[in-house]
Design brief:
The structure is a homodimer of 112-residue chains. By secondary structure, chain A is mainly α. Chain A is built from 5 helices and 2 strands; from the N terminus they run ααααββα. The first copy, chain A, has a single domain, classed as Arc Repressor Mutant, subunit A (Orthogonal Bundle). The first copy, chain A, is elongated and about 55 Å long. The N and C termini of chain A lie far apart (38 Å). Chain A binds a DNA duplex (30 and 30 nucleotides) through helix 3 and helix 4.
Chain lengths: 112, 112
DNA sequence: AAATAATATTGCAATATTACGATAAATATA
DNA sequence: TATATTTATCGTAATATTGCAATATTATTT
């Protein structure tokens, strides 16, 4: 095979997996951090910041955009990307909830 | 290609990418949630909970374990898995930090 | 309108992931 | 010790991801 059986999982499980997959490559984490660091965020800057060719960066940007983690805006003949806060928050809140539920458990059996 | 250029990124960027990759499949998110829900955490239970064959589940469990998100303990002739809280917290804190830095930015240019 | 600049898309090769049947390994029980 | 039970590993097919050169697209400038 090679394709995952998304039908059998809940919408939330699929959504979290999609968000995580978008961050499952160090280049895409680096893009996120770069967008965080700078106040201008033109695609060309990202290309020169990363050790990857322009088409590769463009592909990574598209994956981040498809997952809703960033959004792009046409700015002259360049494109300005920035972080979509709400989506990052979704993932953060999910993990926060996991930690809360974990702490409210009577036993987390293997944990010493 | 197909292999990512991990050398060119920071340790943190690689670590975050590894954690996210471990959660980049709905089955592995489902495993995490199942471990959260139950107080016993036997591998066989996970297999019967998921719509996947036993070797496939075993493979997903190994990936979660390799990323440090869960740990397994021999329990008779079964194996008891549970969530490694510290690792989940690492990821949650990273995202929390991203959100903080985002809110402290003067401008997040594209965000209306 | 032609040339320039910035980003996206296409096509393709190399590698990784996903899934599972068959089988092995490890432990428990009769 | 033989058998059953549980989980891991191997082998392999199908699909996905990664990376980039070549090229297309879009917008700007001359």
């Amino acid at each position: 095979m090679g394709a995952s059986k998304t039908d059998h999982f809940t919408d939330q499980q699929n959504r979290i997996a999609i968000l995580c997959k978008a961050l499952a490559h160090p280049a895409r984490v680096a893009i996120l951090e770069y967008l965080l660091k700078v106040n201008a965020c033109i695609c060309g800057d990202i290309v020169s910041e990363l050790p990857l060719a322009q088409p590769t960066v463009s592909q990574h940007l598209r994956e981040l955009k498809n997952a809703g983690l960033i959004q792009g805006e046409v700015e002259g003949n360049a494109i300005c990307y920035c972080i979509n806060e709400a989506t990052v928050r979704n993932l953060e809140e999910y993990l926060s909830d996991v930690l809360n539920r974990l702490n409210n458990k009577e036993v987390n059996c293997c944990e010493f």
